[in-house]
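Cross-check.
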Amino acid sequence: MLRALAAGGQGWLNVHVTTVSKHAISIWDASCSPRSRFLSREGAVILLEKLIQDLDVPFSSPITRSGSSIANTVRTLRKAGVSTADYQSVCRLEGEHQVAELYHLYESYLSQRNLVDEADILVSSAKTLEQEPNSVRPELVVILDEVVLSELELDYVRTLSRWAASVFRIGPPAHASDAREETAGFLLRDWPLAKNSKARMHNRATYRVMSAVGVENEIRAVFRDMVGKGLPLDSVELVYASREPYIRAIRSLADRIDIDITLAKGYEMTSTRVGQAIRQFLQWIGDGQSSSRLVQMLRGGFVHLGKSNEDGSSISVHAANILSTVHLTGGAKFYHHVFEQHQKKLEHELRAARGSFVEDDRTRSLEIARSVADALQSLLSLGEVNSEATLAEISGRVERFVEAYVFSVDEKDEPSVEQTIIDTIDLILSVFRRLSDEVTDRLPRSVLVRRMQDILDTRRCEARKSSPASLHVVPFSQAGYSDRPNLYVVGLDELTMATHVSENPFLPDDLQQRLEKGHDHRLITSKETAEDRPRNLEFALARATGAVTLVYNCYDVSDGRELYPSSVLRSISDGTDVPETSLSPQSYVPDSNDPEFGLPLDRTDMILALKDQNDAAEKCDRLYPWIGRGRNAIRQRESESWTPFDGQVQISSRQKNPYSGRVRWSASRLETLTACPFRYFLKNVLKARTLDEREDDVWMSPLEKGLLVHDILATFMSSRSGPIAEPDTTQLEKLFLSAVDDFARTRSAPNPAVEEEIRSELRMVARAFICDEIERQEYAEPYAFEFGFGIWPQNRKSDTDRTEKIIIDLEGLSISLLGRIDRIDRVKTGGFAITDYKTGTSSEYDAEDLLNDGRSLQWALYAYVVEELLGESVNRSGYLFPSSRELGRRIEADPSAFRQEVAAELRRVGRLVQAGSFFQAADDNGACKFCDYQRVCGNVSHLKTSIRFKVASTQTDMPHYELLSDWKYAEKHLPGAS
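Predicted model, tokenized:
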């Protein structure tokens, strides 16, 4: 608007472009009582989260998990002038009455704390205009026809207009659809339309349509077309249908090919490194200082701990390497224990290495460990927040975190940091400071952290107007105002342009209609909102005067299905002579012979464009060496011979005898070896780190839940004396729920429903366990819990743990074992029984074949260890499944009947280890189904084909033939197999 006035030579120095609410706030700022404080939208969400917790409603009520939606509902009602009494009078359902009560609590809280929200300010500022018109009287009021006005906003605009010298509307082009009833164009239709507002009586734009495969290729098609035609950047406006995923794709490709862009809506705070660092820090606080989250922060460059004084290496990298081996939550004391144990281990290694060539290396490792412990101490202290806190406490910690850890030493030494980074930091911190002044109550840490993350996700900064030498990127609602002659519109497929809008569950359309009929309040229904996007596109195209290119995605890459042009695009095509440039489904591969769409935009495009040339692969390998290494691995796997890429490696003489006693085997390690030797090779030989980052929506992982169950059951049973009875269920439930409370204090649940689900499941575990225990005590009594054997001294958990080397003999095979037995019972008729608790399902276990082809060895090996140590036989050994799905199911067997079979299985896999043959199991429904290394092996079907080819190519006189007979997957493919 200002640009248009300036370009037209009109006076514009005293013109201010603003929104209705912002103008009202400016009036209120100048005249309000200093005692009043403004409550922003973000503050209202946090406040309502508190009020929801204070409100005594059943946990099953949806309002307990919907603070943000409730806040939008309350804001809509108040701006529509709906009083609490009005709302209560039309309530019918229980949920509506709960919202009404919450609405009343909200208004009461504002009154008690002298807070005002947007609705209060609109009313207050309108009164100020009536009482003191001369002090704020505007000369001119101009409003855009497309602005949607609530009742209070409409009242304010009308009050403002009464004291203005002139009022006008700026209308859309004449042939566009009639204005919606909620817009200024309809509500203020008695205002005159500004002169020349209807100047564009005929749309002189020319149209064409393009299709592309996938969102990114829509953007590539636009950029290729734009660059191929040599269009100046400041002659192009790129319009998107939805912010996500288009903004991300536009920014990513523009950065890669070095195209300057301006974003009319700005960018999210979390798209900056500082914003991401703050969000990760908040998540870390909410997780109870999870070590896995901290590792992500350190490796992602979001936390800088400084450099080592000796060699300048990054302490952050060393800290991440140390912490990646553990999973911690709960605060500094747990980290301190880990680093203390790590340093003791390094000190032991250093003493053993004195005088050898590795002494310097061990000394350096110890110095690094101490540096890491010192560097993390203050960060851990900064991240320790009580389960209840204030916004001021957390925002203060965020501020200190940014100051101390977000920038590296090198960046701090720079004379200046980019102004955009400084502006972003100031904006983020100012928002948090303002919220701290608005909401001063102590609230659950989880609520505060979640809301602060939401602010980072939704707040935008550096919104820009179109600038010279840059591509201007805008949504539908802002398109066509820059008068650029080339307009590209992306996202016009049926999926992106879908007009269905879900109803607000707390303000559904029928409730709005009741308010309109009973009290004459005007609210916007979901159906009316659904029409916004196509209407905005229609207005945008009506403003266009040059070349318009409409682009749609013709294939959903994620779902693998064909997409069609939206109804809006079809209606435009039907009503206009629009040629279509239909790009083929392979359009993402540029064709070097096509002068328009074959233009390579970056090095990847260049390689793809030259894909058919003889030296294309060599060029690709030179540019991207890792691709060359990958291609070599594929060739090796597809060859006839067995290679290191199939798990056939050379091993050291020390590994020639896996059962020599040098290695203390755990049952789980042996089970991994028998299930899939290649997985064992990756995990235990190569020590390959798995991609085990915690998912954002996972609160208590299955591993953490299993450890909690084991600890509580051991604690409960160890403290018992005398028989178990049904009332003991209550005590066990309390122990479980108390443990969940402790866990919740260290890591906040994403929502109450997740936490309640865990509590409910653990209650079922307690009941199933007590029922089983009542039956079991008829024929057995507890002997030991959490019985550790072969444990390394530094890993001892109790005084009863046996640290000496434990060697058992199985049919002439001696093997050293270590482990921890959940429970040993003495059977009243003689001997022992062993139980291992499993919190998962029993689907992987067969009561008729508990060994499961050697993939389930733990129950048998533990029995043989107990017999060796205690000198008595073990009659029963197996698993108890106390989970809510299994309800205390037991699977047991007599281990003595399987002794020869276990020995044969261990000899079989032992021969494979001796030969360095760690083959892949390639089992869709077995070892591969939930394997952590699926990305290494790739497609299982393709892998099976490759393995069968190698097996068929292996002659009976080859050294590998005997090994293949030891490998269960290959047995059925060998000649002579039944």
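The longest helix spans residues 359-383. Confidence is low (pLDDT under 50) at residues 198-202, 581-587. Passed to J.P. for a second look.
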